[in-house]
Write a structure and sequence with these properties.
There is one protein chain. By secondary structure, this protein is of the alpha/beta class. The protein is built from 8 helices and 15 strands. The chain has 2 domains: 155 residues, no CATH class; 70 residues, Cobalamin-binding domain (Rossmann fold, 3-Layer(aba) Sandwich). Strands 1, 2, 5, 6, 7, 8, 9, 10, 11, 12, 13, 14 and 15 form a 13-stranded mixed beta sheet that branches. It is elongated and about 60 Å long.
């Protein structure tokens, strides 16, 4: 089962991804070999899905079409994780990725003219937290980034700052969240709050921001920039359409999916599946 928009436009973009992938060492050496272009969705679906754990173990140089074209390495680890292939971008892909995050974060920005945000991160997620804070600032929302394991001190800081939006990239006890917070933003259901409005961002490190949810059950999928399928075992298969520098074909995630309609899906996220 697949869900996407405008078949002719989708086919054109999938064909571009397939052609780009054929110029990478990883896909060029795949067995069976991938085609150097496709003429139909049926032809695209003959390409075997790639288990995400297999893709995750690849070397960066084998996954990009032109290493000299890399302008940024992004993601929670900035390419420093020994367990994840770095996420590489050129300027075009960076613009699209930022727009996806801006759209999702806009759902968390209230109409309060004095809106502000706080980002609470761990040492491991501080780079991602800094990116979220900078995006909010560019959206006109003052944002502060805190990396602090002292629970008492963090509670005092949040009470003093009085943010209207709280980005939670670390464990934050709900009772410590100040009354000023109108909405919390989490990633991959890292926490589920019982008494706070919440927006959960659905990300996979190697793929980007795939969608978001306001109830941690039904997710709005980013169909414009991703092609989604469901495997025979119920897992979500994803093909990003916009990063031709580091093309990825039919990546089978560890997360289970049930499509509700053209734009929404119910997800069961694999613990630590990232």
């Amino acid at each position: 089962m697949t869900f996407s928009l405008d078949t002719s436009s989708l086919l054109h973009r999938l064909d571009s991804v397939v052609k780009a992938a054929a110029n990478t060492g990883y896909y060029d050496n795949s067995n069976p070999p991938i085609p150097h272009g496709i003429s139909s969705l049926d032809a695209f679906q003959t390409i075997p899905p790639t288990p995400i754990l297999e893709y995750r173990a690849q070397k960066l140089a084998d996954t990009v079409t032109d290493p000299s074209a890399i302008e940024w390495v992004v993601g929670p680890y900035l390419g420093q994780s020994p367990h994840n292939v770095p996420y590489a971008e050129d300027s075009s892909a960076a613009v699209t990725r930022n727009e996806l995050f801006r759209h999702a974060l806009s759902q968390a920005v209230t109409q309060n003219p004095n809106a502000s945000a706080a980002v609470v991160a761990t040492h491991q997620t501080r780079y991602f937290g800094a990116e979220m804070a900078s995006l909010l600032v560019r959206m006109g929302v003052p944002a502060h980034l805190f990396v602090d394991h002292n629970t008492v001190r963090l509670a005092t800081i949040l009470q003093a700052v009085e943010p209207s939006t709280l980005i939670v990239l670390d464990d934050v006890k709900e009772e410590l969240i100040p009354a000023s917070v109108e909405v919390c933003v989490t990633v991959r259901q890292s926490q589920i709050f019982a008494r706070r409005p919440q927006i959960d961002l659905y990300t996979v490190d190697e793929l980007g921001l795939l969608g978001y949810s306001t109830d941690c059950q039904t997710y709005h999928l980013n169909l414009v920039e991703f092609h989604f399928e469901r495997s025979e075992t119920g897992r979500l298969i994803v093909t990003p359409l916009y990063n031709l520098l580091q093309p990825k074909l039919r990546i089978e995630t560890l997360d289970e999916v049930r499509f509700k309609n053209q734009t929404q899906a119910i997800l069961t996220l694999f613990p630590h599946g990232r």
